[in-house]
Every structure is written in structure tokens, then in C-alpha cells.
Amino acid sequence: MTTLIVIVVLALVFDFINGFHDAANSIATVVSTKVLSPFKAVIWAAVFNFVAFFIAKYIIGEFGIANTVSKTVLPDFITLPVILSGLIAAIIWNLITWWLGIPSSSSHTLIGGFAGAAIAHTGFHSIHAGTIILIAAFIVLAPVLGMIGGNIITILTLHIAKNVRPATADKWFKKLQLLSSAMLSIGHGLNDSQKVMGIIAITLITVTRSGEHLPDWMQLSSFEQFKTTTTFDWIPFACFTAIALGTITGGWKIMKTMGNKITKLTAVEGFCAQASGALTLFLTEVLKVPVSTTHVITGSIMGVGSVKRLSAVRWGITINLVWAWILTIPVSAAMAAIVYIIVSRCTGC
With bands split at pLDDT 50, 70 and 90, how would you rate the model's confidence at 341? Predict the structure, then answer.
């Protein structure tokens, strides 16, 4: 029971860190275009991060991404030390990249950590190759979809507003940025909160199936119970709350990279980037694929910037970001494997 509680607490800590690590994704453009002050922007984003809980629960009616994350490791090889080690490694890597101001993927950090600990436990046959490949494929597909969307939405928007005076257009799109920022924050909440939900749920399922006695509100046997009962609403409620609270703390170092270093944005461009990012996240929610909101909004910003001219995008910065994205899963997996060895030895003492 002690290990179970530690895992749930660490999972929520990870969700909190995810919030402030990824806060810049939702608010970087709205701050860089001076639509909102940083403080107002994080409050705005946090509110809609939490609103996403009600959308997932009462409109979508399921938590498909959480289910996908839980399938990263095959059920027969999931143990509490594996889950614990993956979480510890993910938290460490998230803090390192936050400190360095690198907008890496919290999603892939968690997936890599979970898989790496399982591999250290029993080998590569313990992971679900299909799920890992699908998630890894979206390291490329997510920013590409964001880039294409940003490019198309910008071209359409500029065409629609071509006869509008610049001052009037700027006024309109500053207001529209509030809407697009809210949509992006909802997409962020829907996508990122569910990843930790998947970890907590699989932990409870693992302990329940082991036969250990748990209180009724913790005895979870399958993901279907999320649909058929409200007993376990505390899991999504806690996860969406944690990520919203994390968002309130902000992510100023990463915001600087996201908001200014990739390309300079106007209010119109900020709206287009956020709209593209939000639509991409809604699409991946339908597909039940956990993706990185960092990858999505970065691709969207690049797509918007490239409409002006390709040289408007600072490709040197984006190449560094891509390397961070590529390395996140293997580095997290390696760290988790090391943590698992330490944890298993300590628990065996």
C-alpha cells in the first residue's frame, strides 16, 4: 500500500511539473503578442486546462489516451517498481529540461521512462511494440500536422482579412487569440492529463489483480469502470487539477524559446498558430494517440512563420529542438533503467 500511495503522489507531482513545463505551449504566443500579461495568461490557460476534464468526462465520454498509455508495457510485466522507476526518471528529465529551457516532451518522457524500466525488469519483450511505434511515429507526425495546419490556416486567414485595415485586423485577432488560446489549453489538458491517468489507473489495476486488499474507491479492475461508474472520478479530477495548478506556476524559460526564438509573431499569426495547435490536439484526442503539445505548437509556429518566407523561421533553433525531441524517449528510458536497478536492489535489501 505504501508503494502504491508513493506512486500516486509522484504521478500527480509529474502532472504538476508537466503543467509548468508545458505552460508556455498554450500561452507563449498570446504573451509574445502582448494580448495578455504573463500572469493573466497562465490563469487563463489553467482554467481551460481544468475545463478539459468536463469535456472528456461528459462530452467525449471516455479517456482513450489514458488507455493507450497504459498499454505501453504488457500487463504481465507491469510491477510497482517498474512504474515507480519510470515516474522517477520522467520527473528528473522533465526538471532538467525545464531548468535548461528546452521545450522537450513530457509525454515522451513518461512513455520512455515506463518502457525503459520494464526493459530493465524483464527485457524488450515486456513492451508493446505497436503502441511504442505509434507514439514514436507521432514525434514526426505531430509537428508536421501542426506545421501544415499553421500554413493552411495562415494563408486562408490572410486571404479572408486581406481588405481589412491592419489596425482593425490587429484588434480583431488579439480578441480571437483569447479563443484560440483557450482551445489550445483545452487540447493540452485533454492530452497531457490523461497520460498520468493511464499510469495511476494501471497501478491500481496491477495492485487489484494481485489480490491485495484496497478500499472500494481504489479497486480498479479495468478501464471500462471509468465509463460505468463515478467511483473513480477522483483520478481524472486529481490529474486535471494537478496540471492546471502546474500551469499557474508558469514556464518562463521555455516560453522565451516558444514565443520569440522560433519566429516573431503578430496577433494574426499568433491566432493561426494556436488554432492549428488546438485542431491538431483535438485530432489526436479522437485518434487516442498521446502526443507532445510542445511538438504540436512548435510545428504550428514554424508553419505560420514559413508563410512569410522560409528564412523567417530560425531553423537553427528548431534543429536543436528536434534533437531534444528525438533523444527524449531513449534518454528517459536509459535513466529509468538505471533507477529501476537502484530501486530493485534497495527493495531487495
Answer: very high
d(CA 7, CA 25): 27
What's the grid cell of residue 64? 482513450
pTM, to two decimals: 0.86
- Does residue 260 contact residue 145 with C-beta atoms inside 8 Å? no
**Cβ-based neighbour number of residue 311 at 10 Å:** 10
Please, what sign has the CA dihedral across residues 89, 296, 69, 253? positive
Burial 271-305 (b: 16+ CB within 10 A, else e): bbbbbbbbbbbbbbbeebbbbbbbbbbbbbbbbbb
Give the C-alpha separation, 149 to 165, whole Å. 25
Question: What tens digit of pLDDT does each residue of 238-270 get?
Answer: 999 999 998 887 655 445 444 445 456 778 888
Q: Tell me, what amino acid is at 261?
A: K
Tell me the pLDDT band of 321, cut-offs 50, 70 and 90.
Answer: low
Please state, in angstroms and rounded to a whole number, the distance separating the CA atoms of residues 211 and 105.
Answer: 35
Q: pLDDT exceeding 90 applies to what percent of the chain?
A: 33
**pLDDT above 90: residue 164:** no
Phi and psi torsions of 62, nearest 5°: -160, 170
CA 233 to CA 63: how far, in whole Å?
11
- Cα angle vertex 252, ends 316, 38, to 5°? 120
53: enclosing H helix or E strand: helix 38-54
Give the DSSP per-residue string, 163-230: TS-HHHHHHHHHHHHHHHHHHHHHHHHHHHHHHHHHHHHHHHHHHHHTT----GGG----TTHHHH-S
